[in-house]
Amino acid sequence: LSPADPYTDITRLRLQPSSLARHPCLYPGASFAGTQRSGRHAYEVRVTLATVDLAAAHVCGYLRIKGLTDDYPELTTYFDADVITSTGGGNGFRTPKSWGACESRDWQHWTRFPAFRRLKLNDLDQRPEAGEGAVFMRWKEKFLVPDHRVKDITGASFAGFYYVCVDLDPSASPSS
């Protein structure tokens, strides 16, 4: 019996095989970097997924943003995500009233994604079938990391949520 290897990467061991096969970029530990734009300002952002359970329509993780406020040059928040899918729990594209959105706002934001427009939906209560080329989510920031007791930060807010699309087949959308 050999001793356990302390450097073994166990990140992918938590994945369900069907989740990895269908959406290879969505797994615990996956990290995405980009830019968030707000008005004339742009902020460097990194998202790291902590839990991915597509069968239960749930993802959670951490969103780190740089330069948003002077008091906190780098903020990290924990978020929960509602995955929009035809299987499992979760909601359709219509945002629950408790989240503070309305139907017109949902249409305004979802139609910004070419993958959503490819679905040609007539109703926000519809849900995409698995394998339709994209994963749609709503991300709701819950608290600041590492101090979850911080409720208010001047220049930042946890009040809203993000409309998110991971387009697994961007070549299917006409360039514009």
Automatic annotation (TrEMBL):
InterPro entries named among the record's database cross-references: GID4/10-like (IPR018618)
Gene Ontology biological process terms, A to Z: negative regulation of gluconeogenesis; proteasome-mediated ubiquitin-dependent protein catabolic process; protein catabolic process in the vacuole; protein targeting to vacuole
GO CC annotations, alphabetized: GID complex; vacuole
A Pfam short name: Vac_ImportDeg
Entry superkingdom: Eukaryota
Family membership: Belongs to the GID4/VID24 family.
Protein name: Vacuolar import and degradation protein
Species annotation: Exidia glandulosa HHB12029
